[in-house]
Structure formats: structure tokens, C-alpha cells
Design brief:
- The complex is a heterodimer.
- Chain A is 24% helix and 34% strand.
- By secondary structure, chain A is of the alpha+beta class.
- Chain A folds into two domains: 11-230, P-loop containing nucleotide triphosphate hydrolases (Rossmann fold), CATH 3.40.50.300; 243-359, OB fold (Dihydrolipoamide Acetyltransferase, E2P) (Beta Barrel), CATH 2.40.50.100.
- In chain A, the strands form four sheets. Chain A has a six-stranded mixed beta sheet, sandwiched between helices.
- The radius of gyration of chain A is 25 Å and the shape is elongated.
- Chain B is mostly helical.
- Chain B has a single domain (69-288), classed as MetI-like fold.
- Chain B is built from 13 helices and two strands.
- In chain B, strands 1-2 form a two-stranded antiparallel sheet.
- The longest helix of chain B has 34 residues, at 67-100.
- The model of chain B has no long low-confidence stretch (mean pLDDT 88).
- Classes of the chains: A alpha+beta, B mainly alpha.
- The A-B interface holds A 57-59, 78-81, 84-86, 88, 90, 92-96, 105-106, 109-110, 139, 153, 157 and B 185, 187-188, 190-198, 201, 205-206, 209-210, 290.
């Protein structure tokens, strides 16, 4: 079937397109996920991430393109013949069945022997710490408990790929953070690759080994959370994934001429576009250092006037006007030994060359 | 004193709930009490009304001992049950199709289900006589298609009664079924498919059990009135088909035996009490919410 030296990919999506009427939901998406990998499809609502997930599950037919799971083509298979299982955003637990029967439903469809079903259901419920509530009905469970039952139901058939549609959306914030860690821990133990759809950047970063940032039906960038944060390729990604100051300039080798700021910004990489082209430069607020005097030996430094200071608890955001109509944001931590700039103060901003990210488009 | 703040509320509630209760009391409970009282009287042909209030249980004893009446009760229950099953078999796919149709088309489809109500029930049943009679439209069609030389006559057979009941009561089956199917969460069916259930299995294990309240409500809404149905067996059925509604009519108008007719009515109501109570409990559970 597949080359023995290269283990087949858990999931391979090739040139997937889907239109609903005149609206393009997914436009030519391709990517691969290795075994045991965790991919997050991240984007705003309407970016096509859910449609993409539903095509992998088999609920939508792609107009063109192929979907391969562990090397075999499942594009034309109905959902009930695909070796993937999905955990629904609403959990979609069967309200007329007990927890145990919900979890066992998939095994019954497979024709697994009764004793074997009982054993595997118990095992799956143990994994999500729900074994005691096996005889409850979904409406007798809390939101967090329902979510764990939905998870148990999705892993009990040992799918080759697990699909998670906004799995934390219905949980409150505290529970969400704990559940993320538990889910990743469980995934590591089972070794099942998963694709998670989310609009929450923290969720994508903390749960995924790879993140695909989606924009208008295409993948704007695919990479590890670190790569996407440190080296966003486009203005959209830089702005969507985390927060960034974006300056406009003109590429000149490893410099970007930025007339609005009055300096040439040093970077550690040249623009792909080539010299003379208009490019953007992204600088993360927390990578900008503030000082009252001109900083010695900084790669980049510029002076501005403090316009406002927003206190956010764990950090403050200092809005500094560099030129009329050009304001940069710098994050400063809120430890009490740190000096706090005051409104109207002149202040110097400095950042390293490697923190000035050149954006292609 | 403690109740004072709620007095205006209670008054308002009484004003709203009062009239319908008074209506039921006046036009349902009171006549029924009169019927129940008459059922313990005796036939007095020369009196007006032709009843002598003697306080006897003779009518009931007579009904329960005479095979004709017992048969009429049993045959009413049987015909109503068969007709209910037929209505369910036709109504379920209809309700399902409407519930699965595009939301913009559902009101039109529901409208079409209700549309026959715009014409009088009696006239519609009369119309069926024309269609089903020996020289009616249906037989003419069968002859023209040369399927059989003598198609016989549907009118007057038990099948005509089934046809009439199914036709007349179909909306009562479709509407509660539609209500149950329409609120079915589609993601449950997707989840079933995702877990490996073929469409037919998903239907049997998810859709059908979850629409059961609608099935039961629809069946009772058809079964209960069908048991006492008079117009349909009278106009479409034959002389050999006994239904309790017809027996009641005959006792009242042909034999002018009011006390016996009243006893028939009371027994019919008692026989229907169980399904009516079941329906009420079901509705209470639905509205009680989970």
C-alpha cells in the first residue's frame, strides 16, 4: 500500500474545494498531518474551518479534491464507513440513552460482541473519569460531564483520526483551561491524531502541535504555534494570531525603510518580495522595550510620546504616538519595581532585529 | 391578610380561566350529567321526553349481556385501531418529509395538510360516496384501464370506512408527528452516522424513539374520535359493519330508547377513558419540560 520507510500520514487533504451556491466556503486547501499530530484549524466564523472538518467527517461532499486517511482515499465514503470519529460542538449525545449506551452506540453498529462492548465502554469511561455515571442520562449531567461522555464516545471505536468541533465552546473559562490539558494528555496516551476546529487562539496554541490559520476559505499559514507567532507570513496572520504593531515600509535587503517612523528598521531576514517592494513590518507589543533615555546598542530605536496606558492586570499596554496618526503599542509588565510611564512623557522604544517580522502581503 | 397582595392576580387569573371552565361546565359536563342520569332511567314512549327516571341499572345489564352491543364495542375498537395504524403508516412519512423539507417550504406543506378543513367534513365524506360507488369515478377508472371487468364496489365495505377515517383524520396524525420530528436535533443523526450507523439504523435507533411522543399523541388523536365515529361508517360503511356510534344513533332516533342510548354513550366514554388519560399524562410531561 504505502512505502514502508515512510509511515503513512494520519490525514492528507489534497486540493479541497467546496462552494455553497455562489459562496466559496473552502477554496483549494491542502495539508498533511502525521500520526499522533494535533492540528488546530483556527479562524473566525465563516472562514471555512467547520466546512473543512465536516468534509473530513463526510457530512459535506467536496466539489473537488481528495481526502486520505492513513493513505487510503475516503473521499467517496459515507460518514458511517469512515475510520474517523467526531466530537460535536453541541456534543450531540442521544438524549434517550444512558451514558453507557451512548458510548457503546458505535460499537453496536460495528457488531462487536456484547461482553466486548461492555469492557470497552467501561475502559473509555474510565479514561474520561465518568465510569460512576454510566447509567445516567445526558440531561442528568453537567456541561463538563457531557463533554467527557462525548469524548469517550468519539474515542471508543479507536478511530484513526479524531475530529473536534469547538470542543470547549460550551464550557466556562476555568474548566476550559483544565480540559485542554486533559485532552492533550489523553491524546498522547492514545496516540490518535486529531483535528480541532476553534476560533480561540489560546486553545489552538495550547492544544495543537500545528496550527492552520484560515482566512476566507484558504489556509493563510500552517506551522507550529511558535512559527506562526514568531514568523507570521502575512498581515492577516500577524494581526489575527496574537496582537501586533504593523508598519508599512519598503524592502531594502535586511532593512525596511519606514518613512512614517523616520528610521530604517533592521530585521534579521530579507523580504521574499525583493528590494523596492512595499512590505509590512510586524512588531509584537511585548517585544518592545521602553526607556526614558536613548537605549545603547539597540538594533532599532525610536522616540514617541505616551498617549495612554491601559492596565490589564498581568500587563499594561502603553500607547505611544510616534508621529501624527502613527501609534505603537508596547506591553509592559506590572511588577511593582518597574517604572511606569506617565501620560505625555517622551519615551524611547527599542526592539531587536529578530523581533521585526517582514510580512509578504 | 397574607393573601392580599396576590388578590388582584388571583382575580385576573379567575377572569381568564373562568369563562372556558364555565363553558365546559355548561356545555359539556352538564349535558353529560344529564345523559348519565338518563342512562339509569327507563323508556317511557308516551312521555316527553320519553324517559321515566326510575334509577335502575337495567340498561347496563342489558348492554353487557347482549352480544350485539358487545360486538359493536369490540368492532369499533378494532376498526379504530386498524385505521389508526394505517393513518400512522401514511402520516409518518408525510410528517417526516415536511420536517426534512427546506424551512421556507414547510409552511406551504403544512398548509396543504390543513387545507381540507376548509370544506365541511360532512360534504367531504359525501364526496367519497360519489368516488367509491359502483358507478363512481374510481370504478370507472378501473374499468377504463381494463384491470378488471367487475371491480366490485368499495362503498359499503369495511375498507371504505378505513379509507374515510384515514382521509379525515390524517391531519391529526401528521401535525403532532411533524412537531416531534421538526424539533429533532439533526446533529444527533450526524453523530449516529459518524459512529457507523447506516441511515436505516439511525432512523430506528434515533429518529423513531425520539419521535415517539408525537407517534403516541397522533395515534390517540385519531383513535379516540375514530372509536365513536358515526358519519363515516354511516355514509361509507355497509349495513353489516357494526360501530358503536351507529348503534347509538339507532337507539336514539330509530328506537327512541333514550335511556339505552345514554348507557351506550356512557360506556363508550368509559372505554375511552384509558387512552384519554394516557394522552393527558403525555401532554403534561411534554409541557412539564425536562
Amino acid at each position: 500500500m504505502t512505502d514502508a520507510a515512510a509511515p503513512p500520514l494520519a490525514l492528507s487533504v489534497v486540493g479541497l474545494r467546496k462552494k455553497f451556491g455562489d459562496v466559496t466556503a473552502v477554496a483549494d486547501v491542502s495539508f498533511d498531518i502525521g500520526r499522533g499530530e494535533r492540528l488546530a484549524l483556527l479562524g473566525e466564523s465563516g472562514c471555512g474551518k467547520t466546512t473543512l472538518l465536516r468534509m473530513i467527517a463526510g457530512f459535506e461532499r467536496p466539489d473537488t479534491g481528495r481526502i486520505l486517511v492513513e493513505g487510503s482515499d475516503i473521499t467517496d465514503l459515507p460518514p458511517y464507513e469512515r475510520p474517523v470519529n467526531m466530537m460535536f460542538q453541541s456534543y450531540a449525545l442521544f438524549p434517550h440513552m444512558t451514558v453507557a449506551r451512548n458510548v457503546g452506540f458505535g460499537l453496536v453498529q460495528e457488531g462487536v460482541a456484547r461482553a466486548e462492548i461492555e469492557r470497552r465502554v467501561e475502559e473509555a469511561l474510565e479514561l474520561v473519569r465518568m465510569a460512576e455515571l454510566a447509567e445516567r442520562r445526558p440531561d442528568q449531567l453537567s456541561g463538563g460531564q457531557r463533554q467527557r461522555v462525548a469524548l469517550a464516545r468519539a474515542i471508543v471505536k479507536r478511530p484513526k483520526l479524531l475530529l473536534l468541533d469547538e470542543p470547549m465552546a460550551a464550557l466556562d473559562r476555568k474548566l476550559r483551561e483544565r480540559t485542554r490539558l486533559e485532552l492533550v494528555e489523553l491524546q498522547r496516551r492514545l496516540g490518535i491524531a486529531f483535528v480541532i476546529v476553534t476560533h480561540d487562539q489560546d486553545e489552538a496554541m495550547s492544544m495543537a502541535s500545528k496550527v492552520a490559520v484560515m482566512d476566507r476559505g484558504t489556509i493563510a499559514q500552517l506551522g507550529t504555534p511558535t512559527t506562526i507567532y514568531e514568523r507570521p507570513r502575512s498581515r492577516f496572520v500577524a494581526d489575527f494570531f496574537g496582537s501586533a504593531n504593523i508598519l508599512e515600509g519598503e524592502a531594502a535587503g535586511r532593512l525596511v525603510r519606514c518613512p512614517a517612523l523616520g528610521i530604517d528598521i533592521k530585521t534579521d531576514h530579507a523580504a521574499d518580495a525583493g528590494d523596492g517592494r512595499r512590505v509590512g513590518v510586524a512588531i509584537r507589543p511585548e517585544r518592545i522595550a521602553l526607556s526614558t533615555h536613548r537605549p545603547e546598542g539597540a538594533d532599532n530605536a525610536a522616540m514617541g510620546v505616551v498617549q495612554a496606558l491601559s492596565y490589564l492586570g498581568d500587563r499594561s499596554i502603553c500607547h505611544v504616538e510616534m508621529a501624527p496618526g502613527l501609534t505603537l503599542r508596547a506591553a509592559i509588565d506590572t511588577r511593582h519595581d518597574q517604572p511606569r510611564p506617565g501620560h505625555g512623557d517622551n519615551i524611547w522604544l527599542a526592539w531587536a532585529a529578530r523581533d521585526a517580522i517582514v510580512l509578504g502581503d | 391578610m397574607a393573601a392580599r397582595p396576590s388578590d388582584p392576580t388571583r382575580l385576573a387569573r379567575a377572569a381568564i380561566v373562568g369563562p372556558p371552565f364555565a363553558w365546559l361546565l355548561l356545555f359539556f359536563l352538564a349535558p353529560f350529567a344529564i345523559v348519565a342520569a338518563i342512562s339509569f332511567g327507563q323508556n317511557a314512549p308516551d312521555a316527553a321526553p320519553p324517559v321515566a327516571m326510575t334509577g335502575t341499572a337495567r340498561n347496563y345489564a342489558f348492554l353487557l349481556s347482549d352480544a350485539l352491543y358487545v360486538d359493536a364495542y369490540l368492532s369499533s375498537l378494532r376498526i379504530a385501531a386498524i385505521a389508526t395504524v394505517l393513518t400512522l403508516l401514511i402520516g409518518y412519512p408525510m410528517a417526516y418529509a415536511i420536517a426534512m423539507a427546506a424551512p421556507s417550504r414547510r409552511p406551504i406543506l403544512l398548509m396543504l395538510v390543513i387545507l381540507p378543513f376548509w370544506t365541511s367534513f360532512l360534504i367531504r365524506i359525501y364526496a367519497w360516496r360519489g368516488l367509491l360507488s359502483e358507478h363512481g369515478l374510481i370504478n370507472a377508472l378501473l374499468r377504463a384501464m381494463d384491470i378488471s371487468g367487475d371491480p366490485g364496489t368499495i362503498l359499503g365495505s369495511e375498507w371504505a370506512i378505513y379509507l374515510g377515517i384515514v382521509y379525515a383524520y390524517l391531519p391529526f396524525m401528521v401535525l403532532p408527528l411533524y412537531a416531534a420530528l421538526e424539533k429533532l436535533d439533526r446533529s444527533l443523526l450526524e453523530a449516529a452516522a459518524d459512529l457507523g450507523a447506516r441511515p436505516w439504523r439511525a432512523f430506528l435507533s434515533i429518529t423513531l424513539p425520539l419521535s415517539l411522543p408525537g407517534v403516541i399523541a397522533g395515534c390517540l388523536l385519531v383513535f379516540i374520535p375514530a372509536v365513536g365515529e358515526f358519519v363515516i361508517p354511516d355514509l361509507l360503511g355497509g349495513t353489516e359493519t357494526l360501530m358503536i356510534g351507529k348503534v347509538l344513533w339507532d337507539e336514539f332516533f330509530t328506537n327512541s330508547d333514550w335511556p339505552l342510548a345514554s348507557a351506550v354513550a356512557v360506556l363508550m366514554l368509559l372505554a375511552l377513558l384509558a387512552p384519554i388519560a394516557l394522552y393527558q399524562r403525555l401532554r403534561a410531561r411534554e409541557f412539564g419540560g425536562s
